[in-house]
Specification:
By secondary structure, the protein is of the alpha+beta class. The protein has a 5-stranded antiparallel beta sheet with strand order 7-3-14-16-17. Strands 11-6-2-15 form a 4-stranded antiparallel beta sheet, with no helix packed on it.
Length: 699
């Protein structure tokens, strides 16, 4: 016999308590697994160790640890939690303690009440998964965890014998299936009253965009191929080269790092009122055909909302997005009062591809866009001075001069051996003049290198310039009607101010790698093991699988996660309400709850009656015995009833009826008994009633 066969045989013959304990530990592991990314490393390690220890004790049939041991572990866990989170309260600390308490509770499973505590801790922990993510994968894993916990709960409610896991799992599945319609109805109709309804979704933003930028940052997020946003246009979407999503605008440069105008974008939005004159001077001037679209944005952990350039609203305007008020700044960013940590859905946005802004900007307002750090990058400044001194620029007015200088710098990028790469190496190891190292020596870089170098050169030439970060381009194929923008398409470009024309977008990356902008062709990072294997076998298959999953996940987001109050009111309109409001929604929800309560009570009453064939047969036999005046009880078995018959009528007279009752006992409880058909049960009852009538005549 092989080791695997011996292992399987051992599992098949485990004692009931050992088997149920091991299954409960499996259910707990399923519940804890989604939290592994959010828990401290020590918490995950201790949980694995405790669950493994408890499983080993159950396998070997050894005694559980004493109270003192558990008390010491509790003190250790509380101390580690306090050390990690600086508190024992709050979401992260609370979930850490909850996981550890459930793991420790498994080490004192001495009674059924201890198991019930573990069950309900597990159900509560399942709910906490949605504090981090509400994705389709989380929902599917939640369903699996609930099913496993319900199966363990059903096993705990079967104290007699050794019921199979299949039987308990089937009962748990039926219970879940019965509850699903109720859950769907409550989801559709229960009033969504903020802030009680709001739950952070996918709160770990992964775009990497921020109000700061340094060399290498954009290259890192370019390795993230997850989805950043989805757009649905009215009509065909614009070409990839026209898709620029404006995010943080960076102005301050200290020689190594670019920052926004202030230390906090949200603070600027809240504390710096915009005067009408400022708003008019910085307002975008748009022309051409308006693009209308709706947008679903994944969590950014950023207080700037990247919308398609250019929104027509003037600085100081407000925009409502899922209860969040956004305000437009002077540099045409959409600023939120707090970081965006939940998925946002914006309906019916407008953008214009042809635009300009800041035509009437004053020299004082442009001064921050000319500043350079003292004593940094002397080589680049000397190169800019040499370019400016060329005779071809003599005699040009301010506007034409700035245009000519921009064209000359872009031509320099095209002609020289600048290389667009995700792996340019680390800048600044040999000195503090990063722009000199990039512009004059190595010439290797990603979009932030080209935009930063270009802006420094333009400022050195006396042309106001700034960096804009966000996203550029999208996937070439639509997914379920949506245009998909990925984190890998994060981008940085430049804006220059030209007299008479205002702020104009200039993308120096397009001069070096035009395919990046024109075709939205980003550099591909090294794929993971699974993706690499699929790509080598069948690249089209891997793309198809990924697109199919993302389409399914998008439908989940649009249909379920984005189901809002307005959707509820629209549903009420379709149901006949002319002017639905909170009162109508509350009345319908109350009526539904009352109906479900009455239905549940009726179901419980119906369930109390015998419905299966065995229960009906027992009830019929019990009625016949009580007609004989026997003290037969419902909890007794047929063999006990046969004994009562013999005690009352004697062995000889009661023998025929007793034999039938003993046969019924064997048919019900013997492992070798064949299932009885309806016809066989009817024949048995006819014979039994005949024997009972004979006893009545003798009595």
């Amino acid at each position: 016999m092989s080791a695997l066969q011996a292992w399987r045989q051992r599992l098949a013959h485990l004692p009931r308590e050992t088997r149920d304990t091991l299954f409960l530990l499996f259910a707990i592991a399923c519940t804890v697994l989604p939290h592994a990314d959010h828990l401290p490393a020590w918490c995950t390690a201790l949980t694995v160790a405790m669950l493994g220890w408890r499983g080993l004790l159950a396998w070997r049939g050894q005694t559980l640890p004493g109270r003192w041991s558990l008390g010491l572990m509790l003190a250790l866990v509380a101390g580690l939690t306090l050390l990690s989170h600086r508190t024992l309260l709050g979401r992260e600390a609370g979930i850490t303690m909850l996981v550890m308490l459930m793991a420790m509770k498994t080490l004192e499973l001495r009674a059924r009440r201890d198991a019930f505590v573990v069950f309900f801790l597990g159900f509560f922990l399942v709910l906490t998964q949605y504090l981090y993510s509400q994705s389709l994968l989380t929902a599917l894993w939640t369903l699996l965890s609930v099913w496993a916990l319900l199966t363990a709960l059903v096993l705990a409610q079967m104290p007699v014998g050794q019921p199979s896991l299949r039987l308990a799992a089937g009962q748990a599945a039926r219970t879940t299936a019965i509850g699903l319609p109720v859950m769907v109805l409550l989801f559709v109709l229960f009033p969504r009253i903020a802030p009680l309804w709001g739950v952070p979704s996918d709160s770990v933003g992964r775009t990497g965009l921020s109000s700061e930028m340094q060399f290498g940052a954009m290259a890192e997020i370019a390795n993230d191929d997850s989805i950043a946003m989805r757009l649905r246009f009215e009509g065909p979407p614009p070409p990839a080269a026209a898709l620029y999503f404006r995010g943080p605008v960076l102005t301050r440069f200290d020689g190594r790092r670019w920052r926004a105008m202030g230390s906090s974008q949200a603070a600027i939005a809240a504390a710096a009122p915009i005067t009408p004159a400022q708003s008019q001077a910085a307002a975008p001037q748009v022309q051409g055909t308006a693009l209308r679209y709706e947008l679903t944005l994944e969590p950014l952990r950023l207080s700037v909302l990247p919308l398609l350039e250019m929104s027509p609203q003037a600085p100081g305007s407000e925009l409502q997005a899922d209860g969040l008020t956004l305000r437009r700044s002077l540099d045409l960013q959409w600023l939120a009062p707090r970081p965006i940590t939940e998925r946002l859905r914006l309906g019916q946005q407008v953008a214009y591809l042809e635009h300009r802004s800041g035509v009437d900007a004053s020299p004082l307002s442009l001064q921050p866009y000319l500043e350079l750090p003292q004593g940094r990058n002397p080589g680049t400044l000397a190169w800019a001075a040499s370019l400016r001194s060329q005779a071809r620029f003599n005699g040009l007015d301010n506007g034409p001069l700035a245009e000519a200088l921009v064209a000359a710098v872009l031509q320099h990028l095209r002609q020289e051996e600048f290389i667009y790469t995700l792996t340019p190496g680390k800048y600044g190891e040999t000195g503090e003049h990063l722009i000199d190292e990039f512009w004059l020596e190595r010439r290797l870089g990603f979009c932030e290198h080209f935009s930063a170098g270009f802006v420094v050169v333009m400022r050195a030439l006396g042309v106001p310039a700034r960096i804009v970060t966000g996203f550029q381009g999208a996937d070439p194929e639509l997914q379920d009607g949506y245009l998909v923008v990925r984190n890998a398409q994060a981008h940085a470009w430049a804006e220059v101010w030209i007299e008479g024309r205002g702020w104009l977008r200039v993308d120096p990356t397009a001069a070096v790698a035009p395919e990046r902008v024109d075709l939205s062709r980003v550099l591909s990072p090294t794929p993971g093991a699974l993706a690499g294997a699929f790509t080598q076998m069948n690249p089209a298959l891997w793309r198809s699988l990924r697109r199919g999953w993302e389409t399914l996940n998008n439908r989940w987001q649009q249909t379920v996660l984005n189901y809002s109050r307005s959707d509820q009111f629209d549903l009420l309109k379709r149901m006949g309400w002319s002017s639905p409001d909170w009162q109508a929604l509350g009345q319908l929800s109350a009526a539904l709850i009352a109906f479900l309560a009455l239905g549940g009570a009726g179901w419980a009453a119906w369930q109390a009656r015998p419905h299966d064939a065995w229960s009906r047969q027992r009830a019929a036999v019990l009625r016949e015995l009580k007609q004989l005046g026997l003290p037969a009880l419902a909890h007794q078995g047929p063999r006990q009833w046969a004994t009562l018959l013999e005690q009352r009528f004697g062995h000889a007279l009661a023998a025929p009826a007793s034999a039938l009752l003993n046969t019924l006992e064997q048919q019900r409880y013997s492992q070798r008994a064949a299932p009885q058909s309806w016809r066989m049960r009817q024949l048995w009852m006819r014979d039994f009633r005949a024997k009972v009538r004979a006893l009545k005549r003798t009595g």
